[in-house]
Amino acid sequence: MLTVTKDRPLLTTITGSLPRPAWFNGNLLGRPFSVVTTELGYREQYTDAVQSYLADQTRAGLDLLTDGDARCDCDMGGRSWFGYPAERLEGVTGFHVARGNTPSSRDKVPGDLMFEVIEARVLPKVTGPIKRGPLEYARIWKTAQRLTRKPVKFGAICAQVLTSGLHNAYYKDRRSLLMDMSIAMNEELNELADAGCLVIQVEEPSIHGTVGIVDDREWTGDFLVEAFNREVNGLRNKTEVWCHSCWGNPAAQRTETVARSYQAALPFFNRLDADVLTFEAADNGGADLEAIGKEIAADKKICIGVISHRTLQVERPDEVAALIRKALQHIRPERLIVSTDCGFGRQGMSRLHAFYKMVSLVRGTNVVRKELGLPVADVLAADPKGALIG
Ligand SMILES: [Zn+2]
In this model, does residue 104 exceed pLDDT 90? Predict the structure, then answer.
């Protein structure tokens, strides 16, 4: 059900992750969050980092905030997005250290940055039935939400892409593994919803990376829809459910060497049990907006990225406004949410770049809000009286 975005045309947010402050050098290293936060040093670093993430988003004028994925360790190519749950689930023990140096991904060769990223994704090993472990999503969300009156969205990796990053040494096939993973995640996400989280974002089902791209006999589009809907089962009675999709984030790269289109995957996205679907639109110049507007049913809201996480050049507000206007040719403002293509990552760009990209996102949205007669957001960072220095 819609909660935060109900009756809020052109609401603004970001996908999730933010660059770490240089002084935030603590890591959870596979240990439970509630255990490590008993260490005073980590506890202070963590809560101060989350407060600075929330303050930056508030000064930028965003409507719906995130905790910057502060739970994720600072490791190679954003590995912790996978690693955080993989290292805590029951049924996952140790690692599968591959022999040789050939990652299995289909179009990466030595000499490509993404080859090194994938080489560093040492696969956790599935050795027993997958069950919930100490992921503590509810506790982590509450830590952020008690620091602000604005709503905090909680996002986490989808069971599908998480399963792709595991070495299966237990289940007879990948379908059984994925269904058990989806059930374990569903229990975790229901606890998060019960704790009062108003927006839950499930990140990266494998649909758009599979349908029309690889002939996967086990993980078909239909099966991936079934698995996603099992993962979010029951959530929409309690909270607003988002499905995030993009074309990759590790080290600010696309995961594939060529740009892809969402078009073949859209009928499957349309069947997801979600209130809001997110799509990249900045990096591809809004190439799929017309198809998205046509294919996605009116009962779902559409969130588009108007800011790229892959470039350092900060988008100008007029560029952001132009992309929103292009989206409005195909999607009504009541259904449109404005965001970033993906998270800013922990090593993709500096805090400075991420901050001014967020400011530009809201300034550009304000331009269109004015044109439509909608209330504009207060952007403290763009207020001459609110300048940092001088
Ligand atoms: Zn993403």
Answer: no
What is the whole-number distance in angstroms between the Cα of residue 283 and the centre of ligand 1? 12
Q: Which domain holds residue 163?
A: 11-386
Q: 203 alpha carbon to ligand 1 midpoint, in Å?
A: 7
**β-pairing verdict for 90-96 and 123-131:** antiparallel
**Does a structural domain hold residue 2?**
no
Residues with CB under 5 A from ligand 1 (ion): 246, 249, 342
- Residue 208 CA, ligand 1 centroid: distance in Å: 12
Quick check: is 84 in a domain?
yes
**Dihedral angle at the C-alpha atoms of 274, 275, 279, 282, nearest 10 degrees?**
-160
- Percent of the residues in the chain that have a pLDDT greater than 70, as a whole number: 97
Ligand 1 center to residue 358 CA distance, Å? 16
Nearest CA to 148 among 239, 47, 33, 242?
A: 47
Position 143 in a domain? yes
163-217 pLDDT tens trace:
999 999 999 999 999 999 999 999 999 999 999 999 999 999 999 999 999 999 9
